[in-house]
Specification:
Chain lengths: 460, 460
């Protein structure tokens, strides 16, 4: 009976004294004279299982020579374990070596630094830590799809290649099929009309504009895909390639938007708490003490809603020497985010930001000074989502575009959405890795992306 | 009671004679002297609903002037319809205009050509056809996630930015942050060490190599993300950006792989048949007659499995003047694919292809002439999936790499997976748009991608 270990854990009570076949890898191997123990894991769940073999097997000698890291097929009987920390173990009848592993295998059963493991990114999911991180990544991705699909949203694959340059091309990768060592020149400039699309093209940093178009057809849409930034920045939170979720909702103002953000986040956290208890326990124990309590508390809390203005008031009243002085006209700094989430002891929606520090497509409030933007700050991870009500009035949108010197030609189609049955609408973006940092307690974005891309670092 | 139309359709029997509020768009508007009819749709389901208003309303005149395409909020009573083709309609109490639409709105309630609608890609989901196509796209994407997640696969976000060039860089977009009008030069060549990653980088055409690494940790993984090709090709089936699904399974040979492909495809088709009956009925009526029968038949059929050699035998025996002569050493042409699926009257797995026309990482069979590759051909859409057992033997893999002149250095890590507990494994790729063409009957890839990118065409 060939089984995944996950299936065995789901029904081991019915399998006692039965023979099963498992295929997976040796995580650890302890041999004694007449008996041996193999920590076996097939990757289908966090927990492994202990294989026990003894010298009554004719292959005892061969089995006892198996290396850590090797791929094996094991046939054995599922029996009650004498150890208290495991519900069952496998009494081996036979083991077939499917793929050997040399003794200099980099993943040894000991503690490796995360820095070292980044250098073997192709092997690090074999460890407990990274095995757990990337399973949570998969489960959290599914949680996002389940939330939106079950709430009637349409999943839209917005394009990554774009000729729209509204974020400023210095923030976007240029893509080309031209031979860079032999570029076609016209009037002393590269003749981009010779490129595949007949003009300059980029890989995009957002699907929002295209998402808005689809929200005007389906009412509720979401995107979930890779995104690119060229920032030459080597911090714990920056990567040049990451995944984003960008929902966009018609007939939705900023208050309803906050309801959606809160409901969605609680759904995801609940989903991961339910589906990944072993992984979260591991993180709680070895990565962030109190993680499960933090997540459980979030699910049961009501998120605070406060304006940027009132946040600055709070920051100004407190007796702290801020590195960055809080101001009604400015962004709030990391230190402020940190203080505010501690102050309210939970997630905080900060609304109504000064318009000069926010994007051109956001709805200007009646005070003409602020925009209907909202950032969600969560304890420990800072800004988790950023959203806004969008400017639905064509003339006002154009005014902002002109004010900020945005190139209108490539976004003409986008502006015109306001003319054809455009309506009040709102949307937000959530960086998927930011969410994972929050869910796992792992601090560095390089450790929640399977093969991270950062400046000077594009190995594998 | 504010409702999505989808919710109303799910429970209209309990809502008769109750007042509800809907928000959406006017698809059509017929006015008579004392009464008016609005075809209303909010995009949450394929079907719209008829709004009926009469001159007992004090706003009768204003309402009768509402334009097609406008966004409205309607309050009305849900009543039994006199028309046989609708279960209910809404007797209007009030309508609020949320966003006007001019009379030159491009999407009029008449038949538009698909070519024209491509030119208004931001508006085409407002039509019945494209509204249905992109809802099916969303539902089919969810079907894929549900299949793999419920079968214990881990979803892996493989990187799009890569420095690995194993498909040949002429097929891949180069990406750069350098100023193309002022490139740094060293020894008469562009000095790519000055670029963000310190070397040449591309956006990738596959996640397979990275997927294999993760299959060696989780046993069963899948990718689902965008993919890029630079082909300068203007056909119905080519786009420069599309989405792919690439599962990879450890301890899996080519026969088990075919089992998985067959089970997955049937799951997806069933899921869409169940969740999108109205959309499929529409396609069946207006796009491909017999579509639902085709899909139902697929779900209930057993897919044929036949070698490439035996396919060529069949093609040679039949009395047809082939444009391309069938040969044991060559690929099979579109005309052959078409014949074979008609011959077997259903989906066909073609296995054991001549090694010279297949990729370097595929397992060479004992005959040393063929590889353990498999293409799935489906009636009407041709090749839907392509997969293979992978070469798990390090030495044999290296032999193929040398034979084919593949640059080994950047894929060293990949080859080394064979050393560290590598095992028999297999995987396949499915083009998501190819699947959608099969599911909808729509023939042109430009019509199943929200904002398609093809040569000289990157508008929006």
């Amino acid at each position: 009976m060939l089984k995944d270990l996950k299936e065995v854990y789901e029904s081991y009570n019915e399998l006692f004294d039965q023979d099963i076949t498992l295929q997976g890898w040796i995580r650890n191997h302890r041999k004694q004279k007449e008996i041996g123990f193999i920590d076996f894991n097939d990757g289908t769940c966090f927990k492994g299982v202990q294989l026990v073999y003894d010298n009554s097997l004719k292959d005892f000698e061969d089995i006892s020579k198996l290396h850590i890291g090797s791929a094996i097929t094991v046939v054995g009987t599922l029996i009650k374990s004498l150890r208290e920390d495991q519900a069952f173990e496998i009494k081996v009848k036979s083991i077939t070596l499917e793929g050997d592993c040399p003794e200099d295998y980099p993943i040894q059963p000991k503690r490796h630094t995360r820095e070292f493991l980044r250098e073997v990114a192709h092997l690090r999911p074999h460890t407990n830590l990274f095995g757990a991180i990337f399973r949570v990544r998969s489960v959290a991705a599914m949680a996002i799809h389940e939330y939106f699909q079950s709430h009637g949203y349409v999943y839209v694959h917005t394009p990554l290649i774009t000729t729209t340059d509204c974020e400023g091309s210095d923030q976007m990768f240029k893509i080309t099929t031209l031979n860079m060592n032999n570029l076609p020149i016209l009037d002393n400039k590269v003749d981009m009309s010779k490129d595949l699309f007949g003009k300059k093209a980029y890989v995009t940093g957002t699907g929002q504009l295209h998402g808005e178009a689809y929200a005007m057809a389906y009412k509720k849409i979401y995107t979930f895909g890779p995104t690119f930034r060229t920032e030459n920045s080597n911090t714990k939170t920056h990567a040049n390639e990451f995944w984003m979720i960008e929902p966009e909702i018609a007939f939705c103002d900023i208050n309803k938007l906050m309801d959606i953000e809160e409901e969605m986040l609680k759904f995801i956290v609940n989903y991961v708490l339910e589906k990944c208890p072993n992984e979260l326990e591991f993180f709680d124990k070895f990565v962030e003490n109190g993680l499960i309590e933090k997540l459980t508390k979030l699910v049961n809390s009501k998120f605070v809603r406060i304006t940027h203005h009132d946040v600055v008031d709070i920051l100004n009243k407190v007796d702290i020497n801020w590195e960055f002085e809080p101001s009604y006209e400015s962004d709030i700094a990391k230190e402020h985010e940190h203080y505010i989430t501690k102050y309210f002891n939970g997630p905080v929606f900060i609304t109504d930001w000064p318009k000069d520090i926010k994007a051109w497509y956001m709805k200007v409030n009646d005070d003409l000074k602020t925009v209907a933007a909202v950032d969600l700050e969560v304890p420990g991870a800072g800004e988790l989502m950023g959203g806004s009500q969008r400017e639905e009035n064509y003339d006002k949108l154009l005014e902002r575009i002109n004010e900020l010197g945005v190139d209108k030609e490539p976004i003409d189609w986008f502006c015109n959405l306001r003319k054809f049955g455009g309506c009040i609408h709102s949307g937000f973006g959530m960086g998927f890795e930011r969410l994972l940092i929050y869910l796992t307690g792992v601090e560095n974005i390089r450790d929640v992306i399977p093969f991270p891309r950062t400046p000077k670092n594009c190995d594998f």
